[in-house]
Amino acid sequence: MYDGEQYPLPYEQPCRRSLQLPHSRRRRAFTLVELLVVIAIIGILVGLLLPAVQAAREAARRSQCLNNLMQLGLAVHHYEFNFEHLPAGCINPDGPIRNEPIGQDVSWIAQILPQFEERAAFEQFDSEAGAYAPKNLPVRQHGIVTLRCPSEPRMPREDKLAMSSYVGCHHDQEAPIDADNHGLLFLNSKIRFSDIRDGSTYTLLLGEAPITSDNLGWTSGTRATLRNTSGIVPPLSDQQLRAIDEMGMGMGIETGSEVDTDPVEKERIESLYVGGFGSYHTGGANFVLADGSVHFFSQSIDPKTFRYMGNRADGEMIELD
Known about the structure:
The protein is α+β, with helices and mostly antiparallel strands. The protein has helices spanning about 10-20, 30-85, 110, 120-125, 135-140, 240-245, 265-270, 305-310, and strands at about 90, 105, 165-170, 205-210, 225-230, 285-290, 295-300.
């Protein structure tokens, strides 16, 4: 006997099957919280890696800077081999040398150009006419990669003069560039290795110095290419540089300016002021000793030791680490 509740009709089964829908695939996606967590992790990793990358880049730049100084040190030694004395720090009829574009003022770099593959510039440079002669302007504007530290920022200049991050040591303390200095490269100097009585291993030959807006270029035998061992100082801040620019530093304007400045800044704008070494490397600067070896000296070096290294014959014993 047929019971509709217990025994469904045969034609009902296909209809029930036709009403069944296929299962839809569920789509997975990141939630906002998950996305924020991933971004935070990436930010932390970048924050951890960035200082390491910057340190690696600075180490590479410092290594290139050491190589530049080594090349210049070899060039100076080649010059000494050819002429039996070191080049003069500055060639000029008289002194002291002022940081002004007047006079002959031929730098030691201009004299050793053939020794580091810059003979073309050497042959076009007229030393007798002087560093600031109009005919020498093309050479003054000639940029040489070996003369620039990779860490040194490039300052745009309207005169397009080429600069040098590397300078010679003219004296053991702050004093004008003159013929009676105690260093190896000074006014009309012709130092022989036999004159370095304290030993070439303990006497500074070259080092780094930050380029400032008053720089007269690498052909100039002024503080643009000569410094003393009065200290290893960090570069001037942008604010100090702007203040110096406003006062016309290096263009013959000396003390007595109406601008209210402290004694240190007044000393900096004097044309006879030379200054110490320094660099954009963290904590110190690279140097070449008279024996040709290259070193990195910290800003915390003992002032007396550093001063002794700027004197070729003071008789002081020096112990280098």
